[in-house]
Amino acid sequence: MASTFGGLNTMVRGLYANQVSLNTVGHNISNANTEGYSRQRVNQVATSPQTFYGLNGSYQVGTGVDVQSIIRSRDTFVDRQMWQESSSLGYGQATYDMLSRVEGVFAEPTSTGVQTVLNKFWTAWQSLSTNASNESVRTAVRQRGVELVDAIQHSAQQLKDMVKDINSTVDIKVNQINQITAEIASINKQVAMVEVGGRDHANDLRDRRDYLTDQLSKLMKINVFEDKDGNYNINSGNLPLVSTDESVTLATTMDQGDPMFTYYGVEVNKIIIADTSQLGARGKDANFSGGELAGLLDARDSTDGGVRGYLDQLDTISKFLLQDFNEVHKSGYGTDDSTGTLFFGDQSTDYDSFTPAAYQGGWIEQLEVNKALFNTADGLQKIAAKTQPGTLEVTKNHTDAGELSVNGAYTGAKDQTYTVRTNSIDGSGNVLEVSYSTDGGSTWTTATKDSSVTTPPYAFKLNNGLTITIASNSNNTGGTGTPVDYSLADTYTFSPTQGNASGDNAVLLGNRLKIDKRDSLGKASLDTYYNALTGALGVQVQNADRLVDNQTTLITQITNWRESTAGVNQDEEMSDMIRFQKGYAAASRVVTAMDEMLDKLINGTGVVGR
Description:
The chain has 12 helices and 19 strands. Helix 2 runs antiparallel to helix 4, helix 2 packs antiparallel against helix 11 and helix 4 packs antiparallel against helix 7.
């Protein structure tokens, strides 16, 4: 026969199961907006029945319900997809952020960008080529040179400052990793203790651990393995981060062997293992891949698209100006006929054989406008706008003949050779008539006598703006006889220059900036080289932006998949709340009914005849 009070125990179990379910619903609703929380549900199972025997045989009576477990709704496959794609998003976002800052350094295309400064520098040389003796134009050339130096060095300094900023950010990220991995290792230990025996479920601990793993996957690419005891073992490449209840501690230290430090003198941090645990040797370089941290390091260190690569390209431009551009300027002449003058750099330095020493900052640090050009006495005169000195060398066939002098501004072609012949001489040695040839004597043209000069020595006008005078001398000879024999006449040979008005070397310097292709620039002109630099940077920023957009879309989709399983649906929870509330109320009513029955049995039985 069944126990008189057995029904009460059955309903108490019902009350307890519904109460636990209601509490779980409340837990879900309370954490509906908690990041990383997974919806929990109660697994209820019928308890073992009791067997009773009656007149017609045995029969089983149910004994109620029991709470078998409380588990969380989670899809581990979606989690692993999230961890894999988060590292790609973190890498792309870090890369995009850094490249966008590099793009801001060069500020192209704007009126303040380096390209605009280069164009103004080239324009200044073009102006000098047509106004070579104008001091204000020469001043503009010098100052545009200063502007170019400032633009290059300011851009380089901004890139170096970015390296320092990345170092600081890397320090912060490494500290975050250490905090996350240490907490995951601690949670591993707690989960293992709670779930010992395999019956209990550490739902909230697991949620916290998965949330931390989400954060870690953004920082670096990770592989997560769960062992039989529920511990997460996490690696990044060949770097073990967490093993059971132990985590590796990372640190940053200055890399004295990094090329940016040894060449540009800017400190660069690398990541090392800081402890002596079984996970790694102290001081060993930490090798990992993916995530924000790898994106920061690649954006800093890459020679193809990183800060270092753009520093190297500015260094190449500086070397070009100190060597290739100076090569043309040194070959020209100033208005004082000085030559061999550098436009950029220190006049006492041979940049053709110069090698920047360690910590010297490379060619960028050497770049400056030659201080000699700022000398108040003759600095502007040393800007080499012409290809020939102003002095005139005249060759005579008769060494004792009178000296020939040239006046006027020559406007003819460079390297033009004139031969002047004295056609007629008077008894006092005064030259009365001359002719000239520009083809070596094949054809001759009689020069026009300058009517404004009425006393000897007389002046004669040649073509291209030249006027010559031959000094009166008793040893002068001219053509004689009829027909005239010029074989004994004095002849003078010279190659005139355009003088200080000549800007032919300024043209060459402008060409060196815009047209000339140089091996030092990869067989490109400076203009093309810099355009390629900014063009490549623009493409890199677009690619990084595209990667971020694509990964953001994918992460959003994965998040939606995760939320469809693990997310708390308020409507569903309210429905469950009503269901479990009704179940609890119904169980309570049964208890009340049983209480009334037992009251009748206990207090109303056996009182007949009293």
